[in-house]
Structure prediction request, 931 residues.
Amino acid sequence: MEEEDQRKVTDLVIELVRRLLSQQNPQNASPNSPHFSQSLRYALRILSSRLTPSVSPDADAVAESIKRRLATQGNSSDALTFADLYTKFASKNGPGSVNNKWAVLYLLKIISEDRKNAISGMDSPVFLPNLGLIDDEMGNDLRVLNAKENREKAWKNGVLLVSKDPENLREISFREFGNLVEEENEVTEEVLVRDVLYACQGIDGKYVKFDSNLDGYALSDSIKVPRATRTIVRKLCELGWLFRKVKGYISESMDRFPAEDVGTVGQAFCAALQDELSEYYKLLAVLEAQSTNPIPLVSENPSSGNYLSLRRLSVWFAEPMVKMRLMAILVDKCKALRGGAMAGAIHLHAQHGDPLVHDFMRRLLRRVCSPLFEMVRSWVLEGELEDIFAEFFIVGQPVKAESLWREGYQLHAGMLPLFISQSIAQRILRTGKSINFLRVCCDDRGWADAATEAVAAAGVTTRRGGLGYGETDALESLVMEAAKRIDKHLLDVIYKRYKFKEHCLAIKRYLLLGQGDFVQYLMDIVGPELSEPANTISSFKLAGLLESAIRSSNAQYDDPDILDRLRVKMMPHGTGDRGWDVFSLEYDARVPLDTVFTESVMTRYLRIFNFLWKLRRVEHALIGAWKTMKPNCLTSHVYTKLQHAVKLQLLSTLRRCQVLWDEMNHFVTNLQYYIMFEVLEVSWSNFSNEMVVAKDLDDLLAAHEKYLHSIVEKSLLGERSQTLYKSLFVLFDLILQFRSHADRLYEGIHELQARTAESSLSSRDKNKPRQTKDKSSEPGSWIREGRKALTQRASEFLQNMGQELDALATEYKSLLEGFLSQLPVQQHVDLKFLLFRLDFTEFYTRQHATM
Amino acid sequence: MVKACCVMDPEAARTARESLDLAFHKSNILDTGLDRHTLSVLIALCDLGLNPEALAAVVKELQREPPRSTPLSPSSSQVP
Prediction:
């Protein structure tokens, strides 16, 4: 039997060799040709060397592998046909069928593969088999000549393959490796990959579970896997941990949303994160689909299919890991923050060199900042503070109309994100404030046009979401345009409709006593009234007097609206106060100008008014004194009648009085001049210039503040001028005392004159009853005492008056000197001109030098 | 021809023929370049228990002849 088989085999081999050879060259096929016998020998050698196949006999596996190969080569129809044929072929059993089906299939497979390789690798290995064949004849020469080629041949050439069998070894070792892997791993990699994918969605897998001790996902310890696998699983699952964190934040915020104030920025942040997560979900879905592909063994063709191993997964996860990590960091940072502060914190993280991070943060920030920019937009263009969650960097508070501008809205530094600079923020604040001011205080609607114009000029759409993060230029231009127009409109309204300048001028004219005739008249008619004790004065009467002062001065031609606002104000008075101390004028600025003329501003105006009023009063008093003092025929008439000694005395007293008056008048006139021209007018002129230049209400307020401040400081009403101010008031009081002295002096003189005339008269007419004069007061007694006594009296009176005047003069002189000496040492205010005027002739300097 | 001598009953002959047909079809799909007769010889050898790898090697080596017949190769001229 054995022999028969052997013979059969030999016959078949001979037949095979003949057929194969005859395919190419029929001559070679003849059994007698040397080529034939050589080939036959070769074939037998091959057949005898390889007795067992290198793979385990499994027909199905071979068929499957053929099918797959056909499929991957793109011949899916061939693959189908082959599968069909194979099933039929396999079903043939029994006598006459092929017994060794596996061998046939395997044979076909190898031949087919060999042919393919031969065709594709036609170029170099073409000659190699030839070399192999002729090795016997050629001897060692060629081998020596071309050792390298020989080595190459070792892999390609059948002869050498037979002797070394490397593929076989590889297959075996791969299989062993597969077994080893299976042994080491309790779970396959596919399962682990799937578990990791689950963990990355925050779901516990079968083996990979969240471990609260570790604070992360990990393979449970009970599962036997190599340490490398364990580590890579942990690494990959970091994504899951980050995802949990981000997801947790989002759901927490969303849950809290209606009850607590997460804020629109917070919501936007959550939405942006949610979007990023949905991108992430997409990736996970793709990966999950891929994870169903089996992981091929190393021996199999690795290019087949998009399977997922842990290592591949780590490549897939590289980018989402960076993003997720960023998101987790942001979530951590933003937990306690809201609104602008949150946007600012995220903005800090956007400053990153990595373009991936940069783009990601930019996208995120665009979303996060959109509510903020929306607020800016509506605030700048509509003056609406759409900020229910207090997230905006401008906070409003309910205030009275008059303090709306100053206190109504404030910048909230904590909510100001860094990408909006302080100056722009200020501008944004002012623009919206202006709109609100126009709306609330000025009752104006014209700002809407200005806002529309601004939008057109800035070229930004009025639509919501027209602005975004990163478009700082657009924001700036919008804000600038809006600010420019709104501010201009506001100033227009204030100047034109509310006549700001006219009111300022009116205040200057009436409260700062710029309208001379009015002040003179007012002083004249309220003077007697104000000399009464303060508590007996009726303010209604004074109001009437003010009215008549207006009517009889040029003020009557002023705008009735302005005159209507001018009122008398009685300041609170203590005991012993005279009317002079409590009288003042008041100007009612009304909304909206009371934003400029606030209560504190008006108090300062009042102080200035009181000072100026006092100065006027002193001047008025001096002028009044002059009226009586001025030399005229009446007084000169007296002199002639008097004795020589008395006459001299009288003259010297009068002269001293005149000199003192003159000195006082010089002082008061020059002070008055200084106040009127060098303080009020200069300040006013500066203020007018600034009013023209002013671009917004803040500028205007600052200009007005400066104006008022300069008046207060220069009029010596400031804090640092208190000593000067006090000595000035003492001087004023002295001058008023002088006035009453002078009055008394001249009263006495007039009396004297009357007496003298009477005595001469009575000497002529002695019948005239004296009783009438008896009833008169003390000076009446002069007459009875006769001419001599009269002279005596006069000289006494004059002497008293002279002494009093002297005392007054000395006091005045020393006070004035003190006052003058203080002027040049004042550092906060320039009083050079005042000193220069007062001491024009250097009279005081020289006097000081002589003393 | 080789097969025919072993065949006895017509049923077995039919099965053998069909099997050969199927195998030949498959061989064509796989583009092995074998003709029907050679294939039948190979199947017979396989059934006799020869190593298919070795058989494939023989086929491969002997099929390699045609390129050698091209005159380009210097070594080919030495063969005869």
Remarks:
- DSSP finds five helices and no strands in chain B.
- Chain B touches chain A through 60 residues (CB under 8 Å).
